[in-house]
Amino acid sequence: MPTEKTLRAGSAQKRAAILAAARELFLTEGFDRSSVDAVAARAGVSKRTVYDYFGDKQTLLHAVFDAVGQSLLATVRRTIDDMLEGLSDAAELEPALVAFSMRIATDMLDSAEYTTLQRFVRTASGHLPEPDDRALTNAPEEAMGERFAAFAEAGLLDVPDARLAADHFIALTFGVTLSRLGSANAAKDSRVRPLIVAGVRAFLRAYRPA
Questions:
Q1: Count of beta carbons in the 10 Å neighbourhood of residue 85
Q2: How far is CA 161 from CA 17, 66, 148, 157, in A?
Q3: pLDDT, tens digit (0-9, with 9 covering 90-100), for 23-41
Q4: What angle do CA 19, 21, 25 make, to 5 degrees?
Q5: Is there a smaller number of Cβ atoms within 10 Å at the N or the C end of the chain?
């Protein structure tokens, strides 16, 4: 179990160095084979500093997991704001949603952060927080749901359940692409865009106002 001791914030620079060292070691050596001594040595700090900042190795893993998740969430929110802000015409929805999805497919789903998150889930799931405790797990879907709710208020979509609409959108676009191709790197695979376009169109057929 993660430690219950009171931790100190300490130096932001040292904290970042510890997180970076832990992330690299957990990925290359595995969580179980990585020691706090090794993390401290790679970060250039003392073992006591690691314990003072994070308490124990499992809490450190949680911190790395959350930092990666926060980076991905920031990408999603930034892309939503960049690509889906200020739409007022239903005809704008398809090109905007396609452009948004293509940006996510290249900037997020093919990023080092996304790869790291997936590897942690596969290799260290027993040490990660329980799904109900992972505040970031549903955050991208919630952010998408908020935007779909705004579209509904503007009369562009019919969205009885905004979170369900977000789940449907993600499944029809990224879900299908990852299932069919194993990745969503549009820059390297020309098959990604047609699947994204088809998914967006299926979503709009389901959610356009009658």
A1: 10
A2: 42, 27, 9, 11
A3: 888 878 888 888 999 999 9
A4: 115
A5: C
The Cα–Cα gap between 114 and 69 comes to 8
Name the pLDDT band for 111 (thresholds 50, 70, 90). low
Q: What is the band of 140 on the pLDDT scale with cuts at 50, 70, 90? A: confident
Structure tokens at 61: 């893993």
What pTM did the predictor assign? 0.72
Residue count (the chain) = 210
**Under a CB-based contact definition with an 8 Å cutoff, are residues 83 and 62 in contact?**
no
- Residue for token digits 């969430």? 73
How many other CB atoms are there within 10 angstroms of residue 178's CB atom? Answer: 15
Tell me what pLDDT residue 145 has: 94
Sign of CA dihedral 178, 181, 186, 188: positive
pLDDT given for residue 148 in this prediction: 96
DSSP state at residue 131: G
> DSSP string spanning 57-123?
HHHHHHHHHHHHHHHHHHHHHHHHHHHSSS---GGGHHHHHHHHHHHHHHHTTTSHHHHHHHHHHHH
Q: Which residue in this structure is represented by tokens 């879907």? A: 141
Tokens of 134: 């992972």
| Distance between CA atoms of residues 150 and 122, nearest Å | 35
Amino acid letter, 117 = L
